[in-house]
């Protein structure tokens, strides 16, 4: 067992739901002991902060850790430091990611059921491995499960600068599917548009310019729309859809409802669907299906279909700043942050450059 794993682990813990900066605290956990049958001991490297994590701490998410003393975190990359009896398929030194949500990844180390962790190869790199569980599989599933898309078809989405949005652009581009990408105006608009087009985006626009830009693009009306914002941004995507199109909502960053317009439903026969990776999709796939999805994503990274997201790493604590983890949430709250915020539990040894 490594020195890091042998030391008493620390974790962000909360006892009752609330805003993260108000209810979370960094606590020392009981020292780890040797893993038992079917168990694996892990040292965490990087753990992202996803919107679902924030909602979990707030008490607004269907899945949450047992309280009091719950450790949040639905996603994270860890290294195996010890394996218990009757464990197959995992070895000391492997990089692994969780196959189920709510494993509590905002910690430095822990002991878990081995069957709930999946090996990812080191050759895809830290950024890809640490963010492989939620965002890319969501993009892949939404592109495949709702509408039969063919080369030349079009998909429209808001939230295109998110990790899911960027994965949608890249996977669609690799399949000859066009994308209409609606983003908010921002100070670095030209650079953002250039970056998304470099990933394969066909049209990048704003709600205000959508009608004019879409007409000028010559792109066919999309069969599929993806919404992670809600409110006016969801309506903007809906307006672009072809007759019989489908709007899939997978997030609600604006905290505003998705309104199904009467004209869209009656005259255009638009279908309104929802997608939750950890819900019906995960239940239908089972552990083996989730393994297969992540293996598919690995091959997309290896082949160059996907590029790793940019990360903004933050330590849980430093000698100079014992509550450094708070800076991570300040970054999450910033507009146009331009990177996935992650907790870096390696003390900087992982060498993840800040975007």
Brief synopsis:
The protein has 355 residues and is an alpha/beta fold.
Architecture overview:
This protein has two domains: 3-131 and 308-344, Medium-chain alcohol dehydrogenases, catalytic domain (Quinone Oxidoreductase, Chain A, domain 1, Alpha-Beta Complex); 135-278, 3-Layer(aba) Sandwich (Rossmann fold). It is 32% helix and 20% strand. It is built from twelve helices and 15 strands. It has helices at residues 3-6, 20-23, 51-58, 126-130, 135-145, 163-174, 189-199, 210-217, 231-240, 262-266, 277-303, 325-333, and strands at residues 10-13, 25-28, 39-48, 77-83, 95-98, 109-113, 117-119, 154-158, 178-182, 203-205, 224-227, 246-249, 271-274, 311-314, 340-344. The strands form three sheets. Strands 3, 4, 5, 6, 7, 14 and 15 form a seven-stranded mixed sheet that branches. It has a six-stranded parallel sheet with strand order 10-9-8-11-12-13, sandwiched between helices. Strands 1-2 form a two-stranded antiparallel sheet. The longest helix is centred in the C-terminal third of the chain and has 27 residues, at 277-303. The protein starts with a helix and ends in an 11-residue tail after the last strand. Mean pLDDT is 93; it is low at 1-5.
């Amino acid at each position: 067992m490594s020195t890091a794993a042998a030391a008493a682990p620390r974790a962000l813990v909360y006892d009752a739901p609330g805003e993260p900066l108000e209810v979370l605290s960094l606590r020392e956990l009981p020292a780890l002991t040797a893993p038992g049958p079917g168990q694996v001991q892990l040292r965490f490297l990087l753990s992202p902060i996803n919107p679902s994590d924030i909602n979990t701490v707030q008490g607004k998410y269907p899945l949450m850790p047992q309280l009091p003393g719950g450790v949040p975190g639905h996603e994270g990359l860890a290294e195996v430091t010890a394996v218990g009896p009757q464990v197959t398929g995992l070895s000391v030194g492997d990089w692994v990611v969780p196959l189920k949500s709510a494993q509590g990844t905002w910690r430095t180390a822990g002991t878990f059921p081995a069957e709930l962790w999946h090996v990812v190869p080191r050759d895809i790199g830290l950024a890809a491995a640490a963010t492989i569980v939620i965002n890319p599989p969501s993009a892949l599933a939404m592109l495949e499960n709702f509408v039969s898309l063919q080369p030349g078809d079009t998909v429209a989405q808001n939230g295109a600068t998110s990790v899911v949005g960027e994965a949608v652009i890249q996977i669609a581009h690799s399949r000859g599917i066009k994308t209409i990408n609606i983003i908010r105006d921002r100070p670095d608009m030209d650079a953002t548009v250039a970056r998304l087009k470099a990933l394969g985006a066909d049209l990048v626009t704003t709600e205000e310019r959508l009608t004019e830009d879409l007409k000028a693009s010559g792109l066919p009306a999309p069969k599929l729309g993806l919404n992670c914002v809600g409110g006016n941004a969801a309506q903007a995507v809906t307006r672009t859809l072809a007759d019989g199109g489908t709007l899939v909502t997978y997030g609600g960053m604006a905290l505003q409802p998705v309104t199904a317009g009467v004209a869209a439903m009656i005259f255009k026969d638009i279908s309104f669907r929802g997608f939750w990776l950890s819900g019906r999709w995960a239940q239908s796939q089972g552990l083996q299906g989730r393994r297969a999805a992540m293996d598919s994503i690995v091959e997309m990274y290896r082949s160059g279909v996907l590029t790793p997201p940019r990360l903004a790493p933050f330590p849980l604590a430093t000698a100079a700043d014992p509550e450094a983890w708070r800076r991570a949430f300040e970054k999450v709250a910033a507009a146009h942050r331009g990177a996935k915020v992650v907790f870096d539990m390696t003390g900087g040894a992982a060498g993840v450059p800040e975007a």
